[in-house]
Amino acid sequence: MPTETIPYSKESAMKEKTITTKIETLGEAKVLSPLAAKAQGGYTERFVKDEDRVLIDVNLNKIKDTIKNNVEPPSFEKAGPREKIYFDPSKLKCAIVTCGGLCPGLNDIIRSVVLELYHCYGVKNIYGIRHGLQGFIPEFGHEVMELTAASVSNILDMGGTILGSSRGTQDIGTIVDCLERMNIGILFMVGGDGTLVAAKKIAETITERNLKVSIIVIPKTIDNDIYLVSRTFGFDTAVDIATIAIKGAHNEARGYPNGIGLIKLMGRHSGFLAATAALAQQDANFVLIPEIEIQLTGENGFLAALERRMKERKHAVIVVAEGAGQRFFENQTTEYDPSGNIKLKDIGTFLKNEISQWFKERNNPVTLKYIDPSYIIRSLPANSNDCVYCGFLGRDAVHAGMAGKTKLLVSNWNNHYVHIPMEASAGQRKYVDPKGKLWQSVLEATGQGALINGKAHETHPA
């Protein structure tokens, strides 16, 4: 079983990484799972063993090469219910916290976790931590929410999160103090890359104090950029809503002489949403993402290409990810948000002004409509696909925690649900591959070309 450090190369990861696949546990699982008594429901047939693995890379040639060298192909531990669990459900207290920006599916995750704990494992003491990591800090005074099957039964149609959220770092030691005072056995943390980094620090502090607390992360980000996660929940819903924005922009552009529709979508460092939405609704003529450098001026620059498009078709639709083109603001002061992230400059209004000025200088007036649906997308309920997906993630998070596993996130990988060690994913990011199928399909669908005066190249971190 490959629990050692392994080399890994994946198209979307952009470079070779070193990944450890070993999952830590709090101790030996000795308690017979309550699910074993529900054989009539088919539970016993779906018990998973730690030896059940999912290959990291399913490329047949790579697998053959690995086996040829007498090395077992690297793999992740499969998620799912275990026959023996670590915690006694009758004495266990669990908590769940949602952190960072809003995202479709947060309430679905909360509901899935609570119902699995309550109905399937018989855990009755489940607490919701209010307003993210602030909820652990006494000075903020946020009350704890008691979660029951009844209290979460009707939250699926609500956007946002019933627990609230917040941004910003909090003292790790104080968070662990709170977990000790509340006698929490499992903490479920729902959030993005910042939450994952915080969860790793919390878990490390718990280990230093020799506490028996399991930390399980359910990864969340509309940007879909969490490393070693094929798709994050909320992304499917975001694509749905983004395509509506593209439809609207296209109708606006076609409805006026020299009409231009400009849509800004989420994607701080990775352009998965912009690229995928453009393919789902193939009305976009230009897609700009953080991974691909563009130039504004020059014969092959963006503005010249847009001008050619307007002469030929009299309208155009542009989709831009929020993190695209940040190099255009290099001379401006860098600001940071409460979580320590660099505040992005507004590429949407920048492009709106540059486009308007370009055509004005050429006495060629355009009608430009600018659309930013970001906050609408973030706060809506999950669609059906994401709702089902959240159910899988929440249940597998509970199975992992009840088995005494810790320092992991639940991921979907190669069409299987797996356990990913926090240290393998925290602090890293997934990018759109300029040579991969997603971006090459965007180029084929838009026909936009390189938009650079010279050889095109990606701008993501090496």
UniProtKB/TrEMBL annotation:
The active site is at residue 223. ATP binds at residues 101, 167-168, 192-195. Keywords: ATP-binding, Cytoplasm, Glycolysis, Kinase, Magnesium, Metal-binding, Nucleotide-binding, Transferase. Residues 93-399 form the Phosphofructokinase domain. Coiled coil: none annotated. Its main location: cytoplasm. The keyword Nucleotide-binding applies. Its EC number is 2.7.1.11. It catalyses: beta-D-fructose 6-phosphate + ATP = beta-D-fructose 1,6-bisphosphate + ADP + H(+); beta-D-fructose 6-phosphate + diphosphate = beta-D-fructose 1,6-bisphosphate + phosphate + H(+). This is ATP-dependent 6-phosphofructokinase. The record marks 194 as: Important for substrate specificity. GO terms for molecular function: 6-phosphofructokinase activity; ATP binding; diphosphate-fructose-6-phosphate 1-phosphotransferase activity; metal ion binding. Catalyzes the phosphorylation of D-fructose 6-phosphate to fructose 1,6-bisphosphate by ATP, the first committing step of glycolysis. Homodimer.
